[in-house]
């Protein structure tokens, strides 16, 4: 049987080199899968490296570096089986099993990764290293680093006067189902499939809906990634089990839909899979969030085993979760990226749990406010640039600002403060009715090296807050603000605020030090006086 398939493939190859029959051909060192859709890929039996990806007869795989989990699995025990319209290759190591599936008539490499422990390198990613002369263009020019000189770490570079980094290709998980690279007549797409009820391809990732990680890098290769977890601003423990499924699709250029039914995995006998039938839903209505945010309301669910999210419908404010694994979850209501309520909810297999959720955000009437309390620095100076540039980039506006006045608006207020770069002063005027004992609030979305705000007004300096929970990685210099949000408040005693003008100066406190943008820092969400 196997021989016949092989023979048929060889014959078909001679007759029509591109479109052979659906087959898996085994040699002593490789498995070659022909999808019958113009895609033929080769998996090394010893390592599970993907070493050849022929699409319409053209080699997509870089021939000097291959595609795999991490930097390669080393030595694996490989086997294959045919189940209906699928060839399943299983590559086992002691703590990780990689599944590679060829589906009849789909020009894609279907993947899923089962883990029982975090890889020793401390992150879990699939990297496809594609041929850059064929797939010339990264989805985002800010991730094209080839030939650059190092600006920071070994991952931020200067190319043609612009800062570039693979980190600038990152997008929040909630918006990252499909990303790709392309060239003339060819494109490759990383797809984490499933919308609506089937939106659970990220269930084993960590960090919640707004966690973002590397999608691609243009080096000597065209690198296309699915980062399932990493220490890149890690705020949550890693999860183990069946990651994905996900797939790399090859086509001539059009963006594939994320609305892809990958439920065929249920018939493939893979470890750690919870079938659709053995899952349950949470449904409900959100309330208490200002209507300006109606299109930006997310409900998240997490426990140590899984995480999910769904955007509430912007007109009805109702939501129905993806189909979730049974268990008890912390359910979180987000106004944009700001947590405004958490509650517990229990999901059981085959049933729907109703759990309405209402914002518990406290919204005191303010004397003044700069920015919006939404869990992001959006609206502040440089916030529109930070996701794709290093703070040192010449296209950034000066981080050191003259005294800020409220009438200037948030767009003149820096999104972040760096200890070694400077403080920010705010001049504001109060009426006699506004003075007295008041509260100053400064909310931040992330911090680095223990950075937190300390305010001074006249003779009063607010107490230095406790150090924020440390995140063991760079943050804002890698284009992200998504860390631990913290809302700091200080009671300003009576007698400090005066009628007329005064100046509030905010500095960065930290027991650590560092130079310029790698000095202790934090990112502003918003600030107010009430
Ligand atoms: C990339 O593709 C080009 C064109 O097919 C080929 O000449 C080159 O050798 C390939 N490079 C690598 C590193 O695979
Ligand atoms: C104000 C706010 O959003 N606070 C949340 C910030 O994040 C922490 C940790 O994720 C939550 O516990 C807070 O409720």
Automatic annotation (TrEMBL):
One of its GO terms (molecular function) is rhamnogalacturonan endolyase activity. GO terms for biological process: cell wall organization; pectin catabolic process. It is found in: Secreted. It catalyses: Endotype eliminative cleavage of L-alpha-rhamnopyranosyl-(1->4)-alpha-D-galactopyranosyluronic acid bonds of rhamnogalacturonan I domains in ramified hairy regions of pectin leaving L-rhamnopyranose at the reducing end and 4-deoxy-4,5-unsaturated D-galactopyranosyluronic acid at the non-reducing end. Residues 1-20 form the signal peptide. Residues 22-272 form the Rhamnogalacturonase B N-terminal domain. Keywords: Carbohydrate metabolism, Cell wall biogenesis/degradation, Disulfide bond, Lyase, Polysaccharide degradation, Secreted, Signal. One of its GO terms (cellular component) is extracellular region. Residues 279-354, 366-529 form the Rhamnogalacturonan lyase domain. Pfam families: CBM-like, fn3_3, RhgB_N. InterPro entries: Carb-bd-like_fold, Gal_mutarotase_sf_dom, Galactose-bd-like_sf, GH-type_carb-bd, RG-lyase_II, RG-lyase_III, Rhamnogalacturonase_B, RhgB_N. Its EC number is 4.2.2.23. Belongs to the polysaccharide lyase 4 family. This is rhamnogalacturonan endolyase. It comes from Serendipita vermifera MAFF 305830.
